[in-house]
Amino acid sequence: MKALRKKIIDSAEKRKKQTWHQRKKWKPVVQEESIPRAHNAVLPLLAHIGKPEPTPFVPDPFQIEALERILREDVVVSAPTGSGKTWIAVQAAKEYLVRGCGIWYATPLKALSNAKYEEFGEIFGRERIGILTGDRKENPDAPIIVGTTEILRNQLYDAMESGRDLAVDIVILDEAHYLGDIDRGVVWEEVLIYLPERVRVLLLSATISNAEDVSRWLMHVRKTTCSVVQATERPVPLHVMFLTPQNLLTPFFRGSRLFPKVQSYLKTEKGHRRFGASPFPDMNRIMSVLREFQLLPAIIFLKSRADCDKALESLNPSPLDPEEGGFSEAVMSESKNFPELSAQRQFDQLLTRRAGSHHAGQLPGWRLLIERMMVAGHLEVIFSTSTVAAGVNFPARTVVLLQSDRFNGRTFVDMTSTDLHQMTGRAGRRGMDNAGFTLIIPGRYMDLPLVRELLLSEPEPLQSRIGVNFSMVLNLLLSHDPAGVQELLGYSFSAFHVNPKRAEKVKRFLQTNFRKHLSLLQELNYIDEKGVPTHDGRWAARLRLDHPLLIAQLIREREFSDLNSKQLAALMAPFVMDKDKEIVISRELWQRTNPLWKRFRSMLQKLKPLAELLINRGFDVPNIMFWPAAAVFLWAEEVEWGELIENVDADEGDLAMLILRTADHLRQLLSLEKEEPKLAATAAKALSSLMRAPLV
Predict the structure, then answer these.
(1) Where does the Helicase ATP-binding domain start and stop, copy by copy (predicted)?
(2) Which range, of 19-33, 333-347, 438-452, 629-643, averages the lowest pLDDT?
(3) 517 Cβ partners below 8 Å, 6+ apart?
(4) CB under 8 Å to 487, separation ≥6 — which residues?
(5) Are strands 355-358 and 298-301 parallel, antiparallel or unpaired?
(6) Among 331, 433, 444, 587, which residue has the least CB neighbours within 10 Å?
(7) Distance CA 537, CA 478 (A)
(8) 3-class DSSP state for residue 457?
(9) Distance between alpha carbon 632 and the CA centroid of its chain, in Å?
(10) 233 and 80 Cβ atoms separated by less than 8 Å
(11) How far lies 473's CA from each of 295, 368, 496, in Å?
């Protein structure tokens, strides 16, 4: 901490020695025509800037209605970001606690679960809160459990197998629009189908355009009453503005049409060439506008991780002193938990620019530091990819949009209305702003007519993402016969349609897919001819992984039996990567992992017959790469984090995710202690070598 304090003091002392003239030089030099100006039509919007007068908290009618209803029936709450959905959850938890009931609060992300655990600990007391995320298992018998939806789904699998009731009386599903998430939605749908009817369900979501459909589906599945409680108005009004290439701030809309200045820009080729010629926006120019019109703090959404980092690097230092407002002390206090953060390459930029870059390529601890500094009001701006809009809560006064497309994990696609509403939903802080602002800046990646259309549109309806996978089939057959599993699949949201013909078609598709999975599992002797899991099928069901059959086959082949803990961790790593991205590793690491390479090749040979069978039957097989094994092996040897990133050419956040997901896979092996005691013990040792700073 001494080094950290010295770094902060040095930064402050350097500023004190600056003359007034030198400080002025920090501001960008602008030509006269680019001095920020406001169109007369935008002045009434800017007049709303300011902090509202403090008033006693009074719950909104929709909050009161939702609380009254959840005490007797299921409820779907659909309301804009920042409207107070958490208040409903807290009050409902208090009511159920008084009744001696158990509460499960599920979120889609570990980071959100961690944040809610801290928040609820302050409200209810640590002794009444537990957390289950895979990474963390604390106070699991507490009356209130916070965790990820996957853990809740796994508990439901276990409860159905054992025939015992789940010790919970109300489940609160936060960020329930994840029901429509292409990767995670299936888990949410499973939870809602498997939950006992007696358990109340409270779904909290940003605006859902088909909330009534979701409610009717829940009543159909759960045979209980379900109400929809909606709030349509934002708690903080939103104003949308446009910045011309000449630094003129104008409204974006006139009624439902584009403001004349925006239309003029679209018609002027000179404007297109002039602003679109530069591949990267001038962030100091944008910041001068935001400062001039008191639109800070802001979130500026950018296309990529690299763009976020480049924007931060290009930014001039903030005119605010690091000591002002207790900023440097706050950074030092937060950094106590992660001393390694002071060595981060962006640490000095955080202090001098009052700004942060926030994306998945960074260490979780660093992202958390940025989030906390923003929430506490210490930062002027955050540069982020669009993914932050869906999962992290740090509202700002202004959201800045420079493109109308986003990266979906594979390629760039046009934003949807839901994407855009999630981003603009971060603008305007309840109790801190009279209004929120979205600033749209034209450029080569901005389709202005598309943005207009999306802003005027409702978010897209939630779609079912249900699908059949081997882990699901193995686990459901522990408690149901094949006919029962097919009946469960018939309850899916995708099969729930007003049109009976369409519903029947979807049911047949899911049931055919189930039989396809069942047939292969029977051929591999995980399921017998009656549809009952064999001995191998029962332990394989506990491998709740993306590719359970591949891992199970290696266990059957005794491929893991003679591995040490480092080798086991390394050879589990290739199965957790969901992106076919080849990463370069250093020559030294290649030489260091040469014996591991031989085991890796042996593993691939053992898997070859099964992989060919899966492909022939129409199932996907992952591309199993060596670099994840080499990276995790090096980390398991307990090298310093700096040495790891020197030898593996991957973003820190990707390496952290690789290691944390490998740890999740190793935890699945712990469940095989009875059948494979040696393997479980090796997995436990491997796990302890992976879970260390700066990851925990």
Answers:
(1) 66-226
(2) 19-33
(3) 468, 469, 470, 473
(4) none
(5) unpaired
(6) 587
(7) 9
(8) coil
(9) 23
(10) yes
(11) 52, 37, 21
* Bond before 36 cis per omega within 30 degrees: no
Confirm if 147 and 136 have CB atoms less than 8 A apart. Answer: no
d(CA 262, CA 267) in angstroms, rounded, equals: 9
Residues found in the chain: 696
Tell me which residue of 345, 340, 348 sits closest to 640, measured CA to CA: 340
Answer yes or no: is pLDDT of 22 > 80: no
Residue with tokens 């009052």: 354
Looking at the chain, the number of H-run helices and the number of E-run strands are 31, 20
159 in Cβ contact with 124 (< 8 Å):
no
Annotate 46-91 with DSSP letters as a single string.
HTT-SPPPP------HHHHHHHHHHTTSEEEEE--TTSSHHHHHHH
How many CB atoms neighbour CB 119 within 10 A?
A: 14
Please report the domains of the chain, with CATH numbers, ordered by start residue: 61-230 (3.40.50.300), 236-455 (3.40.50.300), 468-541 (no CATH), 547-696 (1.10.3380.30)
Amino acid at 503: A
Q: Which residue has the higher pLDDT, 271 or 164?
A: 164
**pLDDT higher than threshold 60 for residue 8:** no
pLDDT tens, residue by residue, 388-435: 655 566 779 999 999 999 887 778 899 999 899 989 989 998 889 999
Distance between CA atoms of residues 476 and 530, nearest Å: 14
With the C-alpha atoms ordered 323, 327, 333, 336, is the resulting torsion angle positive or negative?
A: negative
Question: How many angstroms separate the most distant Cα atoms in the chain?
Answer: 84
Average pLDDT over residues 222-237: 94
Report pTM: 0.89
Q: How does residue 514 score in pLDDT terms, banded at 50, 70 and 90?
A: very high
Whether the CB-CB separation of 682 and 624 falls below 8 Å is answered with: no
What percent of the chain has pLDDT above 90?
A: 71
Three-state SS at 45: helix
Handedness of CA 482, 485, 491, 495 (dihedral sign): negative
Please give the Cα distance from 91 to 66 (Å, whole number): 10
> Which tokens belong to 53?
């007068």
Whole-angstrom CA distances from 632 to 444, 455, 573, 599, 639 are 40, 44, 7, 14, 11
Rounded average pLDDT over 68-74: 97
Return the residue matching tokens 């584009």. 258
Query: Which pLDDT score, from 0 to 100, does residue 646 have?
Result: 95
Evaluate whether 590 touches 547 at the Cβ level (below 8 Å): no
Cβ 440 vs Cβ 423: under 8 Å: no
Three-class SS state of 324: helix
Q: Is the pLDDT of residue 14 over 90?
A: no
Q: What is the DSSP annotation of 627-670?
A: HHHHHHHHHHTT--HHHHHHHB-S-HHHHHHHHHHHHHHHHHHH
> Sign (positive/negative) of CA torsion 89, 92, 97, 102?
negative
Asked whether the predicted pLDDT for residue 333 surpasses 90, the reply is no
Burial class (CB in 10 A: 0-12, 13-18, 19+), 241: buried
402 vs 307: CA distance, rounded Å: 11
Taking each helix axis from N to C end, the angle separating 652-670 and 677-690, rounded to the nearest 10 degrees, works out to 150
Gap between the Cα atoms of 76 and 66, Å rounded:
8
